[in-house]
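S.,

Sequence below, as promised.
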Amino acid sequence: MRILTLSDEECMSLWDYYTPGKLNEYDLILSCGDLKPAYLSFLVTMGKAPLFYVHGNHDGAYATHPPEGCECIEDRIVNYRGLRILGLGGAMRYNPGDHQYTEAQMRRRIQKLRWKLWRSGGVDIVVTHAPPKGLGDGEDYAHRGCAAFLELLDKYKPRYLIHGHVHLSYGHEIPREMTYNDTRIINAYERYTIDVEPLAR
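The prediction came back faster than expected:
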C-alpha cells in the first residue's frame, strides 16, 4: 500500500502546479497537521485515496472550516485495509493556543484509548503532530517532543509513527527517518511517501 504523508507546508507540485493523475499512485493520505483545510480538500478531491488527518498546533480554523471530504482521526483507531491507524494530534503546550497539551494531558488521552487498543489488538501506524521526545524533535521549547509517545511505542510497538511539527527546513541535520526499536519514526514535513506491506493476522 502506497501512503502519502503530509505536514506543515503545502507542497507546490501537489497544489499550485498540480497535473491530473499525480495522486493516482496513492492508496491513502495521512496529514499530520498545520496544513490549510482547502489544501487537504483539494487532495482528497483530485486523488482516489481517502485522507485521514490530525490537528497541528496552528489548525484552529478547522473548528469552523474543517477539510471537506477528509476524516479526522483524533483520539481514534481506524482500520483501513487491515492497517490499524491511531491519531493523536497537537503539540506540547508552549502558549495558550489551540491543540496544545501538557505531558499529563497527553498521557490521559492515551490512557483513554486503552480499551480500543486492546480490542483492536494493537496499532500499526500512529499519526501525531509532535514527534516523540528525543526522536527528531527540536531543541527549542515550542518544538520539543512528547515523552508520552515513547511510552506508547514501548508498550504497543507500532510499525510506524508519523509526525510533523519540526520543519526539515529548520536545519540540514534534522532527520527524515529514524528507528526506535521496531518502529520507524517518519517526519512528514511537506510530503513523504511510504510503502507499507499489509500483515497477515
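The longest strand covers residues 2-7.

Coffee later?
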